[in-house]
Design goal:
Length: 309
């Protein structure tokens, strides 16, 4: 390798100190998590002195495909891409590869066999998050004879929705007293979370012990639905969320939500470092995970002031 000796400014003056043009195709603005993530990535790119081209896909795949094509046409130096769903991006990623533009998957994964279509995937382990949610529940209610769970899924076909379901079910498979009685998508938004929870309550209101929500925003929407229905969220129905956004800490501090599994969106600086390393010719791991934890109701008040998203 060429590891010894002085750095010489990287390829064509890019990389080591060179200014890059980076296109960022973001999923949308569906949740508190997403807002924090967009901020973190944008700020890290511009703070490092690079030029940012940003595109918000409003949770629509066709908008992302258009955005990536336009980044290719503009000959950006690198593309950051958070795929709204796992499949259907093969063609456009091949176009980027053919144009010699490196793609960095951020936050969400794709389900594509040819992993030469991206440099690395930086994001959370969503399966593990699902396991953490279920493990908390087993610990909390494992002695009960029958526990009926309703599930609010994230965006259909998205990596976090698929994986958070899988990890959760994997753990519960060993505990037949837990049953998922209803499961539907709330598209990761508060409004949809509320709407779907209303429907769950209408058809099965007195038989719901637990809500497992694939993100906090849907849980917060559902909490509203539960209160309007006349039940106590956090007590009559235990509430599990994912993300650990401020809104969840507020709900937990108010006794309305029981637990949230952390999914850290603040990986902007780590991502920019990876892009710079790649441009400078360094080899990167194909999969880089973000570290995270889980937080419960009794920790909420203490930790709320320190939460950064
Ligand atoms: O959990 C959810 C957001 O992809 C990890 O997307 C992300 C998820 C996050 O809308 O709130």
């Amino acid at each position: 390798g060429s590891e010894s000796g002085q750095k010489e400014g990287g390829a064509e003056d890019k990389g080591a100190g060179g200014k890059l043009v980076i296109g960022f195709s973001q999923v949308g603005a569906e949740s508190e998590w997403r807002t924090a993530n967009t901020e973190s990535v944008k700020k890290a790119i511009t703070d490092a002195g690079h030029e940012l081209k940003f595109s918000d896909a409003q949770q629509k795949q066709e908008n992302q495909i258009k955005a990536i094509r336009s980044f290719i046409a503009q000959k950006v130096d690198a593309i950051v891409f958070s795929p709204v769903v796992e499949t259907g991006f093969e063609t456009v990623l091949k176009e980027a590869k053919d144009a010699g533009i490196p793609v960095f998957l951020a936050d969400r994964a794709v389900d594509i066999e040819d992993d030469s279509l991206w440099v690395t995937f930086l994001g959370s382990d969503f399966i593990e998050e699902g396991r953490k949610a279920a493990n908390w529940l087993v610990e909390e209610m494992g002695d009960e004879e029958e526990v009926n769970i309703v599930e609010l899924q994230g965006t259909v076909g998205s990596a976090p929705a698929i994986d958070r379901k899988e990890g959760f079910e994997e753990v519960l498979a060993d505990h037949p007293n837990f049953k998922i009685t209803k499961s539907q998508t709330g598209d990761f938004t508060r409004a949809k979370g509320k709407e779907v929870m209303e429907a769950f309550l209408k058809s099965d209101g007195d038989n719901i012990d637990v809500l497992y929500s694939h993100n906090d925003d849907m849980a917060i929407g559902a909490i509203q639905a539960i209160e309007e229905y006349g039940l106590k969220p956090g007590e009559d129905i235990k509430i599990i969320g994912v993300d650990a956004v401020k809104g969840a800490f507020e709900a937990m501090a108010a006794g309305k939500m029981n637990v949230t599994v952390e999914c850290n969106p603040l990986f902007g600086p780590q991502l920019v470092e990876l892009i710079e390393k790649h441009i400078a010719g360094e080899e990167l791991e194909k999969r880089i995970a973000v570290e995270e934890s889980i937080y419960t109701m009794d920790q909420a008040e203490e930790l709320l002031p320190t939460r950064q998203y």
